Amino acid sequence: MAVLSYAEASRTAIAEEMRRDAAVWAVGEDLGRGGVFGQYKGLVEEFGPERISDAPISEACIMGAAVGAAMMGTRPIVEMRFSDFALCAVDELVNQAAKARYMFGGQTRVPMVVREPIGMWRSSAAQHSQSLEAWYAHIPGLVVVCPSTPADNKGLMKAAIRCDDPVVYMEHKNLWALDGEVPDGDDVLVPFGEARLVREGRDLTIVSWSAQVHACTTAAEALARNDIDAEVLDLRTLWPWDKARVLASVQRTGRLLVVQEAVSVAGFGAEIAATVAEHLHKALKAPVKRLGAPRIPISYAPPLEDTVRVTEAMVAAAAQALVRS
Amino acid sequence: MSAEIRRQTSRPKRPGGPVASGKRSADSGRSAPARNLDVARLSAHHRLMWRIRAFEQQALQALADKLVLGAIHPSIGQEAVAAGVCSNLEREDILLSTHRGHGHTLAKGADPLAMMRELFGREGGNCGGKGGSMHIADFGVGMLGANGVVGANIVIAAGAAHAIKLKREPNVVCCIFGDGAINRGPFLEGLNWAKVFGLPVLFVCEDNGFAATTRTKAMTAGEGPSARARSMGLPAVEIDGNDVLAVDAAAREMIEAVREGGGPRFLHVHTYRLTGHTGADPATYRPQEEVEERWRDDPIGQAEALLQAAGVEALDAAREDALAEMKQVYDVARDTPFPPVAQAYADVQDVGDPRREAF
Predict the structure, then answer these.
(1) Residues of chain A numbered 208-237 and touching chain B (CB < 8 Å)
(2) Using an 8 Å Cβ cutoff, are A31 and A40 in contact?
(3) Across the strands, what pairs with B143?
(4) Are residues A210 and A116 in the same domain?
């Protein structure tokens, strides 16, 4: 075990996988200088500018070129800088990467990792703050990953690089500096579709992913002091998602609270809530509850930005209302 | 037939060689036959162009017969581009095409029966019947796909060439797109990328004058495709795309330069779509006289005039053979079953495979 930051963890994963497989390479804006968040720091020195490649500010071409390069047997890691900018490359991701294998009848695979940092981060306003993970969970062909801890950011990144499907890999910008213990070992992978049990509990199930997992964990500790025993599940991946674990947990607790940073309307939380309602109607002791952002863009001014943020206090209050209802 | 062409292209470079070499002007090959006319090569082009045309005639018939169910985009009148360009590609070279890609795909060496089955959505189609006309691909012959999105293949081609460079392989990529594509962002992004990274790719702008059903010139600022390519430092050549020998010569020269590490090149070929935008488009947006006039430039007719002047007999055999071949293709495709329904769930993804979980 070593203590690494969230950024160091995925960087270590990339370095290990690049040493392991010469077909792996990364391409995006400013990678030669370590990436906009330092998440590629030191890699160009080890692997050279061909495998840690700078790119013009051409999101459509970064993504589209990765599709072509992946179909030709390489394994590109694509840096989109901010998930908001990946919207310039939606055709290349949604119409090309996600569908090439299918519409060509299985003649090809598109093994690429698309890094799309998400989330609110220091007054970044409407075009640098979004959490659009639900968009990609909606698209057949894509895998969607939202790690919340350094350990997962290493193990999931390694799994993503070894995956033969296009993977949308969404790191949260506010977590880059978060430290945590990370298992050593070249082959310590975190499998897709397995939720992490953050905290066991019997009174309600809180399901979350990405940075909100930490708010949920803190809220659960506060709830415990009030004799409410919350189970916290970190989904880790949204497609596939660990439906079995969520259903088993809610079957036991009878209550579901979904917590997400994204806009709640048509967010992935709606998918979880609907699935639980479909399968566990009789087991529910209270209606399912979602917490997420209101359907407004994210502001620059801190008090306005805060109006879309789901806080620990809101999680605790919602949990309490569910249990005490 | 395509094998014959390939044998010829694999001959060593012949400076000043027999195929109207060096001639790139719009009238090359149209006047009296050149003394150095390569009859065998032109005959091969002629036969290939007839195979493409016969394939598409059968596809249009199949559309009328309700065997082809989705949209098809015929390239009738544009066959010289497919024949002239693709005859200079090796099997290992990579081709990316457009929604109007039947000719390119056949010319790259794909099996017409698999293609017709794909158009009919049948088992044994190139894509198992899951793609149809607009997604035909044959990775076995280096054909990495037609594309349903105009201009989308340009950035994919840049990436395919990027992979070739990373792997230090000797192959080249050829990316064919229409004149409508030059007004999409990926045109700029892909050409810039190819030049910046010095990639082995030939861009071919197959300019038929129409962006879907609108005249491209009315919607295009500036001097057009070649000027835009030159502005990014790509050597560009503009030729008559209905003159198969001119296309062949220009493509050969540019592909050789690309293969030798010279970086991307740009070939702008002028042609004309003699049919509608799709098989169902009556093309009433242009006068019939214009179409009749352009039939006189039919690339197959031009090739036949040259071959006749060179004393080649039995030109009808090329047409008759092609029609018989594609009629047979039609019949076999028609009698092929649809794919099993379970195929709808196959080849989506490994992780989160819908065969296990689709809801």
Answers:
(1) none
(2) yes
(3) B95, B138
(4) no
HSE-up of A253 (CA within 13 Å, CB side)?
29
Residues A141 and A259 in one domain: no
Cβ of residue B201 closer than 8 Å to a chain A Cβ: no
Map tokens 């499998």 to a residue: A191
Q: Would an 8 Å CB–CB cutoff place B9 in contact with chain A?
A: no
Q: What is the CATH number of the domain that holds A124?
A: 3.40.50.970
In angstroms, rounded to a whole number, what is the distance separating the alpha carbons of residues B302 and B318? Answer: 14
| Nearest Cα to Cα of residue B149 among B125, B178, B121 | B178
Q: Tell whether A153 and A28 lie within a shared domain.
A: yes
Selecting from A50, A56, A163 the residue whose C-beta is nearest the C-beta of B193 gives: A56
Total domains present in chain A:
2
- By the 8 A CB rule, do B229 and B191 touch? yes
For A239-304, the DSSP string reads ES--HHHHHHHHHHH--EEEEEEEESTTSHHHHHHHHHHHHHGGG-SS--EEEEE-SSPPPSSHHH
Cβ–Cβ contact A277 with B under 8 A: no
Q: Which of residues 145-184 of A touch B (CB under 8 A)?
A: 163-165, 167
Residues A200 and A152 in one domain: no
ipTM of predicted complex: 0.96
Are both A168 and A34 inside the same structural domain? Answer: yes
User: Residue A297 domain-assigned?
Assistant: yes
Range of the domain at A165: 2-182
B236: helix, strand or coil: strand
Q: What is the pLDDT of residues B157-171, one digit of tens each?
A: 999 999 999 999 999
The tokens for B101 are 């890609």
User: Considering the entire predicted model, what is its pTM?
Assistant: 0.93
Domain co-membership, A95 together with A241 = no
pLDDT digits (tens, 9 = 90+) for B246-303: 999 999 999 999 999 999 999 999 999 999 999 999 999 999 999 999 999 999 999 9
* Cα A280 off chain centre by: 26
In a domain, A190, yes or no: no
Structural domains for chain B: 2-333 (3.40.50.970)
Judged by CB atoms within 8 Å, which residues 8-27 of A form the interface with B?
25
Dihedral through CA A66, CA A71, CA A72, CA A77, nearest 10?
30
A128 as an active site residue: the answer is yes
A167 and A206 assigned to the same domain: no
- A189 is a domain residue: no
